[in-house]
Each structure stands twice: as C-alpha cells, then as structure tokens.
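Why do we care about 3D structure at all? Because function follows from shape, and shape follows, mostly, from sequence. That is the central idea of this module. The next example makes it concrete: a single protein chain, its amino acid sequence, and then its structure expressed as tokens.
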Amino acid sequence: MSNFHRKRSLPPLATLPAFEAAARHQSFSRAADELHLTHGAISRAVAQIEERLGVKLFVRRNRRVWLTAAGERLLKATSGALDGLDQAVEDIHRHDGTSPILTVSCEPSLAMRWLMPRLGDFRAENPDLNIDLRLEGGPVDLLADGCDVAIRRADYGISEHYITTRLWAEYAGPVCDPECWNTILVQDLSNARWLHTRTRPDAWDDWKRASGIEASPASEQYFDHFFFALQAAVNRLGTAIGPLPLVADDLAAGRLIAPHGMAPTGYDYVLITLDPPKRDPRIARFFEWLMTKARDMELAITSE
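And the structure:
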C-alpha cells in the first residue's frame, strides 16, 4: 500500500518542468518565455501541484512571487530529477554500444563520391552493424539530430564539447578528362573552362596560391555543389578543382587526371563524436575501417 500511496501522491509529472522554471526564475513570465508557454499555462501547472500537495509553493505579492519553504524543497527535488533524466537520456545516446545501427552524418559530396561506394565493403566485413547514413553538412548537433558520429571537413568552428579525431589531410588540384587535356586543351590550363562551385568559391584561387602556378581561364561556369562540378569534369565539360577524396575513384579509374598534381589545402577531414571513438565498440570499428580506406586511397594515388 505504501508504494501505491506514494505514486498516487505525486503531482502530475507534466507540470513539473513548468514549476521548476517558475521556481528557478521566481517569475511566471520568465518561465513562460523559456518554455514557450503562456503565463496562464504556467500558473495552471503550479496550481495543479499545489492542489495535489495541499500546500502553497509560492507567495504572491505585488505581481511578484517568492518560494515558500515547501517550494524550496520541491525545487531541489525537481531540479535533481530533471537533471538526472537529462543525463540518462544523454548517456543512452552516448553509450548504446549494443545497438545494431550506427547513425553517421556525412557531407553530401563526400558521401556520394567516396563513402557510399565503400559502404558495401564495410557491411561485408561487419554484417552485424548497419550504417544509417544521413547526408548533411555544416555545423553538427549529434544529440539533437540523433547521430552517433559525423564526418566533416574541418573548415568551420566545431564545438569544444565534441571530440574531433583527424581522418586525413585534404589535397586538391585541377582535374579533367585525360583525352581532353591532351587534345583540346593541349596541356594548358589557360585553354580550359574552369568549373567553380558556390560552396567553395575560392577553390581555384586557393589552389593557385598553394601551387604557385599562375593561369587564367578561357571561360568559367558555376555550379551549386562540388558534386555537380566534378561530374561535369568527368563528362568533359571543363576543368574543376578536385579535392581528395572526392576524386580518388575517378583518378584511380582513369576517368580524370590531375595534370598539375595535388597541393595541400590546409584542411583536414575529421570524425566528430561525443566521446573518444574507442569508448563505443561500434564507433571504434567504423573509425578503424575509415582509416584503412583512407590509407588505401592515399596508396592508390601516390603509387601512380
């Protein structure tokens, strides 16, 4: 009977966040702003708790509120309970190493041109672990997005709350169809149509600074994303700045060549996680596989 009585005496659980915010701010209006509710909704939630407990939690005077002794005790207990729930949910997201699914956020161009063609190998080597791939770029919020890891080009600020593990350095250079280079362009970049992408508008200028090569285009064309510009280069529509690993497969297959080689861009690709990769066996396996594929890519290019 005591357990039954204890459960029945609890206030409605849905009202506790409203009480906690009002008690923390000692203001119903501020609590309403924080929780995106109305002042009346906060007031009704507090009234429900007071009615269930049979005590006053706030003293109301001159449009202001102060906690009573009972309110202070309930605030302490409620804050601890809500903090504990937050931590439990975060821990579930962080450490569910037994899940058969690893959710990976990856930049779209990298996913389509490098990662996806290799995921069949990962599945063959890890039949018990499925990759749920999300094509996303830019800033990362792993918990809000429900992702275990993210792969990004580290060209923007990444929150200090995340662990960033270097995967590989990025190199880039002009790439084009080999026959086009030798016949139409007669091995001269100044005869080429330079393909640009609006996501990295300075790619050509950055490459010229890094390589020390001066050249000007015969004409220019712009695309919204790297994926389109690189596909245009494969289709002999011009010459694009191709970063490794986005052009690794095309170079290895001879669909594209990099006649001036590759120069470092100064950026790395990184794996973004909540904890060090080794803490989660699924992430550890995926990370080791990524590093193996990265070494294979570098060997394939440098051996040519």
